[in-house]
Specification:
mainly alpha
Length: about 90
């Protein structure tokens, strides 16, 4: 795997952005990278890329935990009727 080095301009921008990200995650721990990106872009007016937000949150372990898909247990309200007389294969009584 090839490692790439970031330019000093990118690391400077990341260092300026990181305290704001940490503050937003402290105020709203359930927010994911998309909502944080939208907040920074449209509320704060900071033009930033979603991938950059995702990378910074991932590097500093600030990503929100993914929700598990919970499914309701479907149980019948009325029990299904049980046969009174055993039936043979295809024979009518």
């Amino acid at each position: 795997m090839v490692t790439r080095h970031r330019s000093s301009r990118v690391t400077q921008g990341d260092q300026q952005l990181l305290p704001r990200l940490q503050q937003l995650k402290a105020d709203h721990p359930a927010w994911g990278y998309r909502r944080i990106w939208a907040y920074l872009r449209y509320r704060d007016g900071f033009p930033v890329n979603k991938k950059r937000i995702y990378r910074l949150l991932q590097e500093h372990r600030l990503l929100a935990c993914q929700r598990r898909c919970l499914r309701a247990n479907r149980t019948p309200l009325v029990p299904s009727p049980a046969p009174n007389v055993p039936t043979s294969c295809g024979a009518l009584i």
